[in-house]
């Protein structure tokens, strides 16, 4: 009887572990094609976009943040409207003015607008040693905060650790470090 219970427990554990592994693999990679496509459009490493989405929402397209950020990349309605206006396409302008939450809840649109915004922020820091860290911090806390944190230092020589030590918001430091660690730890996308 005990051998039977041990066998059943072992088989149950193997099935549960396998199910968890396959569920997690599916869950974390079901948007890989969308991420790759939009990352290519905006010349961003898809592993960085994947890592950002992992940190922001763990791939929950329906998530709405405390400051009304929407979707996988937690895009704000204001950013979506700015993107729509910049595209010059009236349909996008109409959709973002009528129901921006529904618009940003679509994974493809959310990743498209999120990548556009990330690249727009990155333009400010391109070529700097802490470019990626500064861009991620600006994505999280806003570019004006990044400007505050680099004031009095030389951005042209500031390293990522130096920049992060200046970031006055602990949650932003943790956010940036977590994304950079996941991004640089190896391949995530399939």
Give a brief rundown of this model.
The protein has eleven helices and no strands. It is mainly alpha-helical.
Walk me through this protein's architecture:
70% of the residues lie in helices and 0% in strands. It is built from 11 helices and no strands. The chain has helices at 2-29, 32-41, 46-57, 77-87, 90-98, 100-105, 107-122, 131-141, 143-150, 160-166, 170-184. Helix 2 (32-41) packs across helix 3 (46-57), helix 2 runs parallel beside helix 7 (107-122) and helix 8 (131-141) crosses helix 11. The longest helix has 28 residues, at 2-29. The radius of gyration is 20 Å and the shape is globular. The chain starts with a helix and ends in a 6-residue tail after the last helix.
Topology:
Blueprint: H1 2-29, H2 32-41, H3 46-57, H4 77-87, H5 90-98, H6 100-105, H7 107-122, H8 131-141, H9 143-150, H10 160-166, H11 170-184
Helix pairs in contact: 2-3, 2-7, 3-11, 4-5, 7-8, 8-9, 8-11
Tell me, briefly, the overall form.
globular
Structural class: mainly alpha
Biggest sheet record: none
- Estimate what percentage of residues fall within beta strands: under 5%
* Mean pLDDT, all residues: 92
- How many helices? 11
Order of helices and strands: HHHHHHHHHHH
Number of beta strands = 0
In helices, the fraction of residues equals over 70%
Report low-confidence residues grouped into runs of 5 or more. none
| Euclidean distance between termini CA atoms | 44 Å
Rg, Å, rounded: 20 Å
Name a few traits of the molecule.
11 helices, globular, 70% helix, mainly alpha
């Amino acid at each position: 009887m005990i051998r039977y219970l041990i066998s059943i427990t072992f088989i149950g554990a193997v099935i549960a572990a396998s199910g968890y592994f396959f569920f997690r693999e599916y869950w974390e990679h079901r948007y890989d094609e969308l991420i790759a496509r939009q990352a290519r459009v905006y010349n961003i490493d898809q592993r960085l976009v994947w890592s950002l989405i992992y940190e922001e929402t763990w791939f929950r397209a329906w998530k709405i943040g405390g400051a009304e950020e929407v979707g996988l990349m937690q895009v704000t309605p204001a950013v979506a409207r700015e993107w729509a206006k910049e595209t010059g396409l009236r349909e996008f302008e109409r959709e973002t003015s009528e129901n921006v939450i529904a618009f940003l809840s679509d994974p493809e649109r959310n990743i498209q607008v999120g990548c556009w915004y990330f690249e727009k922020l990155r333009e400010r820091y391109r070529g700097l040693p802490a470019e990626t860290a500064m861009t991620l911090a600006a994505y999280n806390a806003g570019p004006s905060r990044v400007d505050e944190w680099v004031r009095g230092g030389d951005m042209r020589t500031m390293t990522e650790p130096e920049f992060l030590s200046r970031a006055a918001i602990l949650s932003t430091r943790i956010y940036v470090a977590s994304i950079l660690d996941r991004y640089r730890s190896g391949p995530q996308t399939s």
